[in-house]
Amino acid sequence: MSETVYDTDVLVVGSGPAGSAAALLLAEYGIRATLVSKYGWVANTPRAHITNQRTLEVLRDLDLEADALAAGTPQQMMGDTVLCTSLAGEEIGRIRSWGTGEDLLTEYAAASPCPMIDLPQTYLEPILVTNAAKRGAKVRFDTEFIELTQDTNGVTAHLRDRLRKDRFAVRARYLIGADGARSRVAEQIGLPFSGMEGKAGSMNIVFKADLGAYVAHRPSVLYWVMRPGAETGGIGMGLIRMVRPWNEWLLTWGYDIERQPPQLDEADARRIVHDLIGDESIDVEITSTSLWTVNHSYATTYSAGRVFCAGDAVHRHPPSNGLGSNTSVQDTYNLCWKLAMVLRGHAGTALLDTYSAERAPVGRQIVDRANLSRDQFGPIFQALGISGGSDQDGITRALEACRAEDAIGAIRRRELEAAISLKNYEFNAHGVEMNQRYASSSVLDDDCGPEVFSRDAELYHQPTTRPGAKLPHFWLVDADGRRISSLDLVGRGRFTLLTGASGTVWEAAVRKCVEDIQLPLALVRIGSSGVRDAYGEWHRARETEESGCLLIRPDGYVAWRKPSAPPSDSNAYEQLRAALFAVLHRSDDGNPRNSALPPTSER
Description:
By secondary structure, the protein is α+β, with helices and mostly antiparallel strands. It is about 30% helix and about 25% strand. It contains 18 helices and 26 strands.
């Protein structure tokens, strides 16, 4: 019996943050999308959780910010990262994290209309998948990807229904592999990887316990615990992570990857949990256990032909810095508007080549950063004069020496303070999260020279309107007197031209571009168009004259910048048309410029 063949524009394999966000974005843009997952439902363990401002900006563009805020733990409850000998034991130090310190809170608030929240994967994925289905995506669980072939016209994916046990095929114009760190899609299309897999072994223990007495007075997402044995496969500390305050938790502990993976039964899990809590009288319910490996691996290109990969399929790293699900969602935010433009005929297929050019450097950066953050626990142990996971007597002696009221004790306290401060690169890396810059043929350089960061680019966000940067957030006032963000003026799957009140020359240019090339393009004249620069923030942020303009892509990135208005309507039209054609990879006659695709179905 021959396989049944279905048809869709884009087939998405995997329902994690990358896959579910891709299906949602494509559906929002009016593209036929089918999402398949081999599992019966979304994530059943709360692996990823930190949700940064940029990801909430993506959800805001999709009208889902309120859903995320309702389901997540607010920023003010995330922030006192604690280092201790156990929850009931001695506290070694604290770090004001995720921008909750008084010195950083204002900077975080100025950078975005959205806060940071803690939104475990078990809560994020249902929001994404449910809304993807509501907006038109077809969603199939218990559907396993087997293999694919592609040709010049599309991709054929062979799938297996895990309930009926039969196989069938889906014919799609494009395929997105968002099937995780063991991606079958990435393997089949032969994506090249750099780095190292399997650096260390870790186990997760998900449990329920009322720990409010030990943590409510120092609210945090993360409680790092220095215990004997923590050096095995780990960083020298165990971790108790809040899932829901203060009764649902995830504990991480290392194991020796050079040996057989441990067989962890409920009694073993409860023993580890009680040891890190430091109170055996606490009632503990073990929900699940799982093993995973620490990787330092990233793909150097994200696509082959008509197949693209995103999320953990292309960047594999430890959870340090909380970058995983955020980078995954942002991968697809970059990719899906490009697919939509190509599928609608607005852009040449060469636009799709910019996905790898723009996102692969980001993937490498976050993989390197997460692994470096993991290694930066070492100075804490050095300051204490111990090796990670020393025996209990060694830990006790080290802490007593650090508390000593003498000159040596003072030196150790300063060294410990400096070592803990280094962890700001993990827990307050605002620049890593918000300073992602794109360089590709869909970003038109305006010859402004290399960007110079006035402060540490990993720790501090630097807003700019340079092409290749995200449009800065600044507050405006609408016609009803309500405060709105600059980010609310852009996105929605369309290009936006931002200019000031005196940028009247751009009105005719935008109108003629819309008529001539049938492109989703909006004009916003701040100071007109029902939007006022009431606070003067646009004036301070735009880095152009008032009559100049910024061409903003559907993902909120600056594609082109014109410092001042051209002398005439016709000049403005010609310059805007040329910029749009360059960004969208259309030739001078308006036809799409297409990149080479696989010549046969063998790839």
